[in-house]
Input
Amino acid sequence: MGWLQKQIQLSEKDRGFHLITDELESQLPELSQYQVGLAHIFIQHTSASLTLNENADPDVRRDMEIFSLQAIPDGADYYRHVLEGPDDMPAHVKSSLWGASVTLPITDGRFNLGTWQGVWLGEHREQGGRRRLIVTLQGNLYR
Output
């Protein structure tokens, strides 16, 4: 049984939902050492989120962002937390709704995702910056 915990820094992203599976895997060469296990991925920010969804059609990510902007608008007059800009409080709401972590199975040194699944970063700020993730791998190592 082996454990690894590692901080990963994602490249800066525009506002919206972004497929980050390949970026995660490229920064986790250690993943190939795990025969079977779990990967827990946690984002260290309160204005961005992680979720698992469609990995093929980018229209799904675009549609999710349109829904997100309509359901949780920037600058609504009922927000009291406004010191950091009109997109900050809505970003906190979206982060809580979509979540701060995902847990994925590991099989044969890879994330064991469904055919059409990928890990998404929800960037909910106009200028969120580079986002930090903590990845914890646990499982049986190849011998």
